[in-house]
Design goal:
Order of helices and strands: HHEHEHEHEHHEHEHHEH
Radius of gyration: 19 Å
Largest sheet: 7 strands, parallel
Strand order of the largest sheet: 3-2-1-4-5-6-7
Distance between the termini: 56 Å
Strand content: 5-15%
Oligomer: single chain
Structural class: alpha/beta
Amino acid sequence: MAGVRNLHDAMTGYAPENLFAVAGKVALITGGGSGIGLMIAQCLTANGARVYICGRNAEKLEEAAGATGATAIAADISTLEGIEHVRRELGGREERLDILVNNAGTSWVSAIDEFPEHGWDKVLDLNAKAPFFLVKALLPLLSRQPDGAEWSSVVMISSARGMTAKASSVAYNVSKAALNHMTRVLAVGLADHRISVNTIAPGWFETNLNRTILRDRKDDLLSAQPIKRLGSAEDLSGAILFLCSRAGAYVTGHILPLDGGLVAAA
């Protein structure tokens, strides 16, 4: 009978509600007021996590918080002052952070020979610099005991464009490629802190950043990839739950293209 009970206990551990559980975890999502950040906030709150969202637009952030049950922290994390504000606000409310989703991002569309320095700086500051310094600022909340089995999770939201050479927005593509490699560097560098670091690289999801191009070129863009549809909140939710739960506990330093095959077909 002991063997039967042990087998039952083991099989229970394989159940999806245990493997993919995030209930009770504390999460922070940057750029959580709309688009992919809002989808992630909806997913994590629906699955029992205590979620904080931050962004620059306080009105949009409060609306998103009301719709999801998340807590809003208005801040501009493209500056070190904004990052410090987030650290103080979160640290004043929580003793730990289990999930950090670095999602906030921006773009600047310009031809290479006309690309302005201020556009480059704006994109790189938010898309590449901010994720690193936010992780640094939140290390005391993210770190776990070195002799324990528990890990926290950092998930970067990159882009399939960080893995292709399309030059429609050179700073955006370069910033996302930098984020992909930062993932590998941080995964190695933060392993002693018991922090896993992975990236989701989305393809075509409908967000504020790409709504115009999808309106004008959606059919052409989707025809170039094997799965000929936009990504959905369910697609994103499956990836997030995997990387932030027991199901993905043996994964760190990897980039997951969530792109309908866009990169494979490029």
